[in-house]
Give the backbone structure.
Amino acid sequence: MSRKKIALIGGGQIGGVLAQHIAQKELGDVVLFDIVEDMPQGKTLDIAEASRIDGFDVKLSGTNDYKDIAGSDLVIITAGLPRKPGMSRDDLLSTNAKIMKSVAEAVKTNAPNAIVIIISNPLDAMVTLFQKVSGFPHNRVIGQAGVLDSSRFSTFIAWELEVSVKDVNAMVLGGHGDTMVPLTRYANVNGVPVLEMLERKYKDASKAKEVMDAMVERTKMAGGEVVKLLKTGSAFYSPASAAVEMAAAIIKNEKRLLPTCAFLNNEYGVKGYYVGVPVVLGEKGAERIIEVSLNEEEQAALDKSVTAVKSLVEDMERLGF
Ligand code: APR
C-alpha cells in the first residue's frame, strides 16, 4: 500500500506542530508549504532529523511552490494571521479571507482530489470561502474547531471532578466563536452524567449549575485565555492535536464521530451553512451528519450560534468574497 500524502498549507506555529505529530504517527508523507522562504524547509528538516529518535519513517519536505502539493490525499490549512490580545476571531476576517481565497485557488489547481481540513480563523467563514472558491464537494471540505473546543471543555470537567480526562466525553456544537454551544446535558464521565456528579459533589443543584456554567464560559473563552497569556500568537499545540485526530480518522477510514465544522443541508434546521455538529469522519471526509435531539434551550443556543455564523458569512460577502 502506498503511503498517503498530506500537504500542510501554512508552516507557522500550528503547521510545525502538525508536521511533527503527523510524522510521529506515520499518517503519511508530509509537504509543508509556506510563503516565507526557507522556513518550511528548515522546520521539516529539523523534524526529519528526529526520525531516528522518534522512530518514524515518512518523508518530510518543505516548499514555497504549490506544485509540490500535487497528488495530496489530505490538505490541512493554517495559512493566515493568528489573533492578537483583545482581538476576536472575527477581527481576522478580511486579511484571512484574502489569504484563504489564494490558497483555495492553489489547492484546486494542484490537489483537486484532496480532502481539506481548515483551521484558519474565523473558522466558519474560512471553510465557507474555501468551498465556494474551490468548488469541492461539501463532504471534502471541513473545519477543525469542535474537537478542540470539546477537548477544552473535557479538560475543565476532568479538573473539576478530579477524574481522568480519558473518561470524559463532552461535545461542543455551533460556530467557533463566543456563541459556541457546549452540550452540558450530554457531558458524561464514562456514561455517568457530569451534572449528576456535580450535584453529588456540591449537594446543591444551583451550585452545581453555577459550576457547570463557569466551565461553559471558560470553554467559550478558552482561545482568548491562551492568546492573552502568550501575548503573541494564538493557541497552537491543541489546535494541531485536534486536527491530527480528524486527519487520522480520514486517513485510516476510522468512522470516528467527531464534532466537525460541516455543511448542513437541513440538519438541525439549518440549510446551506457550515456549522459545528457531530460528524462521522472516514475516507470520504464528512461521511454522515449525526443529529442529536436538543431541548428548547439547547436548540435556541444553537440557533443563536448559527445566526452569528450567518452574519459572519454576510460580512465576508460584503467585503467582496
Ligand atoms: N499562503 C500560505 N501561507 C501563508 C499565507 C499565504 N498566502 N499568508 C500567510 N501564511 C503563513 C504565514 O507565513 C505563517 O507561517 O501562515 C502561517 C501562519 O502561522 P502563524 O502566524 O504562526 O499562525 P498559527 O498560530 O499557525 O495559526 C494559523 O490558525 O487557529 C488559526 O487563528 C489562527 O488563523 C490562524 C491560523
Notes: The pocket of adenosine-5-diphosphoribose is lined by residues 9-15, 34-36, 78-83, 92, 96, 99, 102-103, 119-121, 233-234, 236, 239 (CB under 6 Å). The first strand starts at residue 5 and ends at 9. The chain has two domains: 5-145, 146-321.
